[in-house]
Amino acid sequence: MANDTGDEQILKGLLDTLVLHVLREGANYGFGIHERLGQVLGTEDAGLMKEATLYPLLHRLERNGLLDSYQMPGDRGSPRKYYRLTPSGRKFLERRVVEWRRVTALLGRTVFD
């Protein structure tokens, strides 16, 4: 994993985008989000998102108004906290995807030529 501040900031922005993308599919709880990210990323990159990273990220996105949450009964009786995108979260995700595509295109035209 990244060990310099710039790399950490890039990765943080990417992980935010990936979590919002998963929640665009529908509401989900923490472990379900983690599992879905593993599927989306594939086995080689599934380790990018640690559970210890996911929960603070979800709380930050909720504090920033990009997600809201609600409780539902879990399989074992204890409630699960589900997260879903807010309208602001959807708009933020749309902007972020445009930004990432722009960065990818820029790198493709310059660094990877």
Describe this structure in words.
The chain is an alpha+beta fold and 113 residues long. It has a single domain (2-109), classed as Arc Repressor Mutant, subunit A (Orthogonal Bundle). 60% of the residues lie in helices and 14% in strands. The chain has helices at residues 5-24, 30-41, 51-63, 87-109, and strands at residues 28-29, 67-73, 79-85. Strands 1-3-2 form a three-stranded antiparallel beta sheet. Helix 1 (5-24) crosses helix 4 (87-109). The longest helix has 23 residues, at 87-109. The two termini are 26 Å apart.
How do the helices and strands line up, and which of them pair or pack?
Elements: H1 5-24, E1 28-29, H2 30-41, H3 51-63, E2 67-73, E3 79-85, H4 87-109
Antiparallel strand pairs: 1-3, 2-3
Helix pairs in contact: 1-2, 1-4
Q: Which series of helices and strands comes N to C?
A: HEHHEEH
Strand order of the largest sheet: 1-3-2
Distance between the termini: 26 Å
Task: Give the class from helix and strand content and strand pairing.
Answer: alpha+beta
Looking at the structure, the CATH topology is Arc Repressor Mutant, subunit A
- How large is the share of residues in beta strands? 5-15%
Q: What top-tier CATH class fits best? A: Mainly Alpha
Number of helices: 4
CATH architecture name: Orthogonal Bundle
Q: What does the average pLDDT come to?
A: 88
Largest β sheet strand count, sense and barrel closure: 3 strands, antiparallel
How many β-strand runs?
3
Low-confidence stretches: none
